[in-house]
Amino acid sequence: MTDRMTPPPALGCRSAPVLKQRGQREVFCGLTGIIWLHRKMQDAFFLVVGSRTCAHLLQSAAGVMIFAEPRFGTAILEESDLAGLNDAHAELDREVETLLARRPDIRQLFLVGSCPSEVIKLDLSRAAERLTQLYAPKVRVLEYSGSGIETTFTQGEDACLASMVPVLPATQERNLVVVGALPDVVEDQMLSLLADLGVGPVQVLPARTIDADVAVGPNTVFALTQPFLSDTHAALIRRGARHLAAPFPLGEEGTTAWLAAIASEFGVTQDTFDTVTEAPRRRARQAVAQAAEALDGKSVFFFPDSQLEIPLARFLTRECGMRAVEVGSPYIHDEIHGPDLDLLPAGPQISEGQDVDLQLDRCRAARPDLTVCGLGLANPLEAEGLSTKWAIELVFTPVHFYEQAGDLASLFARPLRRKRILNGPALEAAQ
């Protein structure tokens, strides 16, 4: 089984010095995770306990039309609530009662904390316990924080999944739990690959419905599909499960290494592994090679945003021929990010956290061909002549596993192609 994974370079970045900075950060709100979670979990509802600003954010981020029936909403905290003139718990109970009466299809209700609810110290954990006793077993009520005060936007999903782990059923059976929300079509591709390898039983967290019976116990192993799930990772470890550390399934190499870690755990033979993966690996390599023509030899700079930065840098440098100047991540977790750091060729500055002004200075000095950053920095950098890629687009777009590898490379190639087209007439005139 040892020959399945591409050997790491002689010098990776796992032991490289990490530049740790704490200062002003450019981050997006953790409530954003609701946008993909409410589509994934078909019997769940996300009730944000927050302000009108929270409601406007979700409406604009999701593009929800006025006649739509989304599976999220906002319990608005008015000025009297913030001033402590009302009993916020009594008002929340009334909102939940009205919601569940109107939407009897709800099986899981998440009370999502926000900046305003945390500022007034509203105890949503106590509210969730009280409401669970009231509405169980028909409805399971959980709570987590989506506040953007101290978190990045992808940690909303992490907090949501971590809140689910303690209430998952216990099992003594050997099973694999794949952790991380993926688009349904990508999840189906992944489950098909695992089934063809003979791996099972396989369960997914988050499941599409509460009836999926995801269970955890001392014989459970789990594999992460997203690198921002550190709290969920810790919660599963506390339940006795064991993590299968591997590079993340982005690109052909990452997907093969991720599958290889699972195959090795479940005793899949080399012949079976090669038979199952040979055709999709070939398609992925061909698709990446075609899309990466515009990327070969170009430099890339990552601002910390989604926590996808390290596996994306590995993909771009090893499969697309790019050179990483700096790879910034909000947080670096050795067990989670270490396998990708092992494969990331030495050279780039690895940074954790952010002092945005200092990082902007480094980016401007480096003048990379492509800068991956949040929306708040993209337009100013574009105005300075730097090509950018919105980091948030990489979370909303299907990019995992073999069939999406070419699309992933195309996302990075697009800004460079656009710049070449826009500069074409000017270059011709200069000549």
UniProtKB/TrEMBL annotation:
Q: What class of enzyme is it?
A: oxidoreductase
Instruction: Give the originating organism.
Output: Pseudosulfitobacter koreensis
The organism's place on the tree of life at top rank: Bacteria
Q: Which reaction does it catalyse?
A: chlorophyllide a + oxidized 2[4Fe-4S]-[ferredoxin] + 2 ADP + 2 phosphate = protochlorophyllide a + reduced 2[4Fe-4S]-[ferredoxin] + 2 ATP + 2 H2O
Keyword list (alphabetical) reads: 4Fe-4S, ATP-binding, Bacteriochlorophyll biosynthesis, Chlorophyll biosynthesis, Iron, Iron-sulfur, Metal-binding, Nucleotide-binding, Oxidoreductase, Photosynthesis
Q: Which InterPro entries match?
A: LIPOR_BchN/ChlN, Nase/OxRdtase_comp1, Protochl_reductN
Q: What does this protein do?
A: Component of the dark-operative protochlorophyllide reductase (DPOR) that uses Mg-ATP and reduced ferredoxin to reduce ring D of protochlorophyllide (Pchlide) to form chlorophyllide a (Chlide). This reaction is light-independent. The NB-protein (BchN-BchB) is the catalytic component of the complex.
- Kindly give the Gene3D superfamilies that the UniProt entry links to this protein: Nitrogenase molybdenum iron protein domain
Lineage runs: Bacteria, Pseudomonadati, Pseudomonadota, Alphaproteobacteria, Rhodobacterales
Obligatory cofactor(s): [4Fe-4S] cluster
Task: Please give the PANTHER family that the UniProt record associates with this protein.
Answer: LIGHT-INDEPENDENT PROTOCHLOROPHYLLIDE REDUCTASE SUBUNIT N (PTHR39429)
Return the EC number.
Answer: 1.3.7.7
Q: Name one GO molecular function term.
A: oxidoreductase activity
**Domain Nitrogenase/oxidoreductase component spans what residues?**
29-406
Q: Which family does it belong to?
A: Belongs to the BchN/ChlN family.
Cite the binding residues for [4Fe-4S] cluster: 29, 54, 115
Q: In which pathway does it act?
A: Porphyrin-containing compound metabolism; bacteriochlorophyll biosynthesis (light-independent)
Q: Which Pfam families match?
A: Oxidored_nitro
Assembly, in brief, is: Protochlorophyllide reductase is composed of three subunits; BchL, BchN and BchB. Forms a heterotetramer of two BchB and two BchN subunits.
Co-factor remark: Binds 1 [4Fe-4S] cluster per heterodimer. The cluster is bound at the heterodimer interface by residues from both subunits.
Q: What is this protein called?
A: Light-independent protochlorophyllide reductase subunit N
Instruction: State the NCBIfam families in the record.
Output: DPOR_bchN, PRK02842.1
